[in-house]
């Protein structure tokens, strides 16, 4: 008998989509207590557990049970593929995506997911069937968006740049999201003015004296996930992934400043309490000894002023990669949420320049230890660069650092598949294939005059 007082699993999925993970877990658990074989609730509970706690083993186990209960449901297969990729089992993930496509040949989300876990070597029957599906004018917008991103990846793999960029342009047009370029410009102007006035050095920094936090920053797709995966192989490192903790602190700080009317200062008690809360949270999450905790949210590059106030002894790794390679990689990637800048070539150029200029401000205006790391140098000759990383982090050498692809930790970022591969330089210089279409991006960065200068400063080609 249906319980009319209990919301259905669609309500739990809605909470999950709103990133209200704890509520999604609670509601799906209550549904399962009443209806233990409700497949949708099992799947929602699994995905919410994964998003909230990063517990691959539990989430995979629950989704496998859902698949056993409903073996013909393709959506369960591609959700299981996501979790298997996160855990590092990319071959099993690809098998699940292929099974989803066998069950539902027009499952464009599964095709997109397969492309993230597989390098296409030829224009096979699957690709041809997806090209034919693309010609179906009745295909709804979201499914067409996933299909276009999937075809862009496939033809990029096949070194067919004209076809690949055509699909990428369509995919980003269909998936366009807002981004406040003007607001981002104002924020950069504000921190520049504060740095010129030496306000950051004079600001209170009574947070926490720990040396543990190591922030890995830069542009999306610049190699931040790779560097964290390398460091995570060390037993003394706790890797947080793309943690929202500093972003949340920034939001709370903004509210406090607005309420107090103080534009630049934060109270010592607030800074100390916030930093102490983060430190306690790391210990609770780790449940083991650690010396270094990494946070690789790339856009913390815009928050180093606050980081310095919270953790004045923190260290920062700044990833540098050829800006046009970064730009192309962003444009071909479908991000789950946020990153609105990535859907327009000119916005990617603007944001790349803003991140680079922000890092220039911090380097002259903050007393933080910042290590510059070239992605190109790292993938060309890994061991010397990895030894630099270990020395900077204060870690004893471990040969495990050389094999980040063997990490078993959960990876939820767009680089899930790449970091499960041995370090390689396949993507270096990718932008050259797409140069005829990159005019808006290049112009927004400041033209090749700025790009060449940035490349020369970074020591890569």
UniProtKB/TrEMBL annotation:
It comes from the Bacteria. GO terms for molecular function: protein-tyrosine sulfotransferase activity. The keyword Iron-sulfur does not apply. Pfam families: Sulfotransfer_3, TPR_11. Keywords: TPR repeat, Transferase. TPR repeats lie at residues 74-107. The keyword Transferase applies. InterPro entries: P-loop_NTPase, TPR-like_helical_dom_sf, TPR_rpt, TPST-like. This is Sulfotransferase. The lineage of its organism: Bacteria, Pseudomonadati, Pseudomonadota, Alphaproteobacteria, Hyphomicrobiales.
